[in-house]
# Entry
Amino acid sequence: MGPDEDLPTLLSRNDHLSILRYIRAHKLREPNLVITHGTALLGYNATEPQKSRPTFTLDPANRLAATEQLCMAAIDLGNSPLAQVTLEAILLDVPPESARYRKLQGMHLESIGNYEEATKIYDELLADNPSNGYAAKRKYCVLASQNKQKEAMQALNEYLEMHPGDIAAWNEMAEACLAVSDFKGASYCYEEVVLGCPLDSNVHMKLGEVYSTAGDFKLARKHLSQAVLLDGDNLRAWFGLIDAAEGYLEDVERRSAKSKKEVDEESVDVAKELILFGGEKLMGHYRGTKMGKLIASLLKESSQTL
Amino acid sequence: MMPPSSSQRRPPPPPLLLDSQIRDWVVLPLLLIMILAGLLRSSISKYLRPPPKPVNIHDRHSKSLLLRTSRLKGPNGNYLSEGRWEARRIAWSSRGDSSSSSTIGYLRTQATHIESQKKQETNNAEESIPGLPNMTDPTAMLDGMKGNMASMVQNMIMMQGISHFFRGYILVKVPFPLTTGFKQMFQRGLDLNTLDTSYVSSVSWYFLVMFGLRAFFRLAMGDLNQEEVEGIEVQKGLGVEYPTGPPGAFDAVKVLKVEADNLELMGCKGRKFCVDEAERGLLGKRYPKKSKRRGVNDNGGEVLFGLTAGKGKQKSI
# Structure
């Protein structure tokens, strides 16, 4: 889908329509580009939207799609006059009860801070069709942007009850859990995200960090190892791995001092090896930089505890 | 020197001469008619296509649940550690009577929840409109068929017309010999045993062209353009879609129960959890070698016989 050429070629040719289609097809978030080329294509005036003279040369499907895109970009950049003008233009071709139009309208209201009206629109949309996932998601966003932590989490929870397959929502939930220091909940959510995108190094890293914070060092080590396996340049994961391994050693020491239970020696050896290996890798990354000395002294400290 | 058997064989029948009038007045017009009819059909079915309908919230919910379980069942599941994977599997599928966990699995509770809600909805509907049987909305049944109707009706009429006007015509000869097995396909409407199979009758020509033109139509009318594809995507998010198939074909309750049973029967044996092997993979040759304590599972035995992971989850935190 989308134009065959890549974005730089299209930009150099100044092919407005293809640039917009490319951005849509690849789901890029480039509001500035969209404003530049969308206004040029459709004849809007970004600085003084009231003076726009929209052209109608494109066929309706293309024009509506581009206008919607332009409206979203205007909302994204906080250019609410332009968003208002494009919304009015969309209304020329589309009935006012269209769900797609009302969603845009709601987002515009959100962007100018009129949360009550926006919520009203989303509630109406949900009453019309309870399967409307966008409206349920936006309701959460309205609450989140007002910093109503508890209500936002409730709304997100409601959404996830109905749409448990939505990975992005699980990720959002994980971050919300982290914000209230609910590490157990966050680990559950991140596990769900891992199931959705198993090859993303960052997700494994975050899951490992959450486990590590919650005190489950063994699982933390596994996921952090997976993170650096997937992306060897993920330095945060390397640091996390060293930290988790150290945490594991301390944990084992504390427990064996308390209950004299037998220690899984193999796992201890692995943890020590992980610290050394991770340290070497990190040193390799920082060699020759200003940070090098600092990192070296830090790592030396941790390797002395072995 | 010819073998004796060949001299006894019947001489090949003289080739039939097909009148060039047949080509000009039957073969080519038929082709033209079919192309025009195909274009007409596609534009008619576009208008007959029913508008997108809101998806039933229960259907959407259960489809989303299925998406979630399919991730666990598929290769993605290998990126969780064994204990966590097993804990999820049991939490979603348990029947509540086994010793390992006392609660009924999530999928099963969702299934009963949806079932009771549906029952309530149909009860409400019956109260408001007494006498209307549930689930059978005749217009909804019709909607799914409308799109196919146009092509079906058209095909029937065309076939009748052709077999009426051109009965018994031989239109074309394919330039290669064929076995008698192709008689059914190439000489429909002709009952001549002695006729060579490479001659094509009028009705068969119709069929050949009908199937052969599909690729041509796809080229001529083009696939969906980008805006249409995006529109369908947006509709999915808005919870509406074009109805496919008759209503009630997707039974949310049944599907969820089947999925729970499937999960129940899955085991972590035979699965390779790559997260559990990640440390070994990372350290490679530097992984410390120790052959003792073989019997102890890496997770401290929490998944003994694949049953006790529910408790192991708490232990491991």
Q: What stands out?
A: The longest helix of chain B spans residues 20-48.
